[in-house]
Amino acid sequence: MTKTALVCGAGGFIGGHLVKRLKREGFWVRGVDLKFPPFAETEADDFAVGDLRDQSFCRQITDRRFDEVYQLAADMGGAGYIFTGEHDADVMHNSATINLNMLDACQKRNMLGVFYSSSACMYPEHNQTDPNNPNCAEDSAYPANPDSEYGWEKLFSERLYLAYNRNHGMRNRVARYHNIFGPEGTWDGGKEKAPAAVCRKVAQATNGGDVEIWGDGTQTRSFLYIDECLEGSIRLTRSEFEGPVNVGSEEMVTINQLVDIVADIAGKRIHKKHIPGPLGVRGRNSDNRLIEQKLGWKPSATLRSGLEKTYQWIERQVHRNRVAA
Ligand code: NAD
Predict the structure, then answer these.
(1) Residue 213: CB within 6 Å of ligand 1?
(2) How far is the CA of 159 from the centre of ligand 1 (A)?
(3) What is the residue-wise DSSP string for 196-242?
(4) Is residue 248 pLDDT above 90, yes or no?
């Protein structure tokens, strides 16, 4: 029999890619989002446009049982959206309401379980002050002290999904994503994240020109290519392990190094111009001991290989916009 999947947030970056991946595996897929994917036609068999903050809409889209349910919808963006403080109330209210509604609807429909995408932003700020030695082991989460309201909402929702496991016998799965990037993600407009923003700035720069970087560029991060994010998410969903578990890369770089790699891929000499901007923690890296132990798998692709594909795609978008202007 054909397997079925429900993907909430299917108009977004990771959800859009997840729909494609599940279609390749032969699933019948229903996608749900406020909007269709902006960069490519959805491959979902059925796509419901609507608001998951509306409980009756959540009941409508769960009108049947699905073999797999992925809940990726969230009010989210990069540092320019999450760390300015201007969107705190929306981020908390919107994302928590989505999770409360969806999980309740799935439980009432007797759905087996839901995959939930939490974030490394839930880790305590005090463990991420040293750029060379951040601690993001899963068991370092408590006592909790995320540096953003986005992180606090993720922490609340993680606990919500795991409480439904305990009290309602569900098989919910919780992953903590660390900076996912790739083609067909937001690349301008204020919600883009560092890899996409850097690719755009380098693509727009003239040879020898300036590229603006928020902060001194010595803050560290790791970035995970979209294909490996999907692999980890699907493996976790189909495993006996409920999480929470990191889904991220262990290849930590400074933002300055990230810019250098992208400039090298572009074949451009650029000048890094450091300007004030929202930053987040000083250092963050994935700790992959638990995922390897529980799933017998961990991400292994290099940052450069993912950036090559991402840069090519963003360069095309920049060029297309220039032609259209
Ligand atoms: P995204 O913003 O591209 O996708 C989220 C989607 O949710 C959007 O298409 C948006 O329209 C949809 N949405 C928001 N509010 C909605 C509502 N009320 N009803 C229906 N749909 C709604 O983000 P993404 O990068 O694809 O992230 C997917 C998930 O992974 C999110 O939960 C995010 O917090 C989590 N995550 C992502 C990253 C990353 O680096 N991209 C890192 C950590 C965690």
Answers:
(1) no
(2) 19
(3) HHHHHHHHHSPTT-EEEEETTS--EE--EEHHHHHHHHHHHHTSS--
(4) yes
Per-residue pLDDT of 46-61, as tens digits, reads: 999 999 999 999 999 9
Judge if 234 and 261 occupy the same domain: no
List pLDDT tens digits, range 126-168. 998 888 888 999 999 999 999 999 999 999 999 999 999 999 9
Decide if 294 is inside a domain.
no
Ligand 1 atom index nearest CA of 154:
34
Using the atom order of ligand 1, give the atom closest to the CA of residue 57: 19
Instruction: Give the atom of ligand 1 at the shortest distance from the alpha carbon of 10.
Output: 9
CA-CA distance, 184 to 109, in Å (whole number)?
A: 33
Ligand 1 neighbourhood includes 11 CB (under 6 angstroms): yes
**pTM for the whole structure:** 0.96
- Domain holding 92, by residue range, is 4-180+224-247
Shortest-distance Cα residue to atom 8 of ligand 1: 12
162 with 278, same domain: the answer is no
Q: Is the CB of 200 under 6 A from ligand 1?
A: no
What percentage of the chain has pLDDT greater than the value 90?
Answer: 87
CA distances from 100 to 65, 117, 153, 165, 280 (A): 18, 14, 11, 14, 27
Active site residues: 150
Total tally of structural domains belonging to the chain:
2
145 and 233 assigned to the same domain: yes
**What does the pLDDT average to over 99-107?**
98
CB distance 53 to ligand 1 below 6 Å? yes
**13 domain residue, yes or no:** yes
Look up residue 174 and give its two tokens.
């919780």
8 and 109 in a single domain? The answer is yes
For residues 163 and 74, membership in a common domain is answered with yes
Q: Does the residue 170 lie in any domain?
A: yes
Residue 40 CB coordination number (10 Å): 12
Together in a domain, 25 and 170: yes
Ligand 1 geometric centre to CA of 303 (Å)? 22
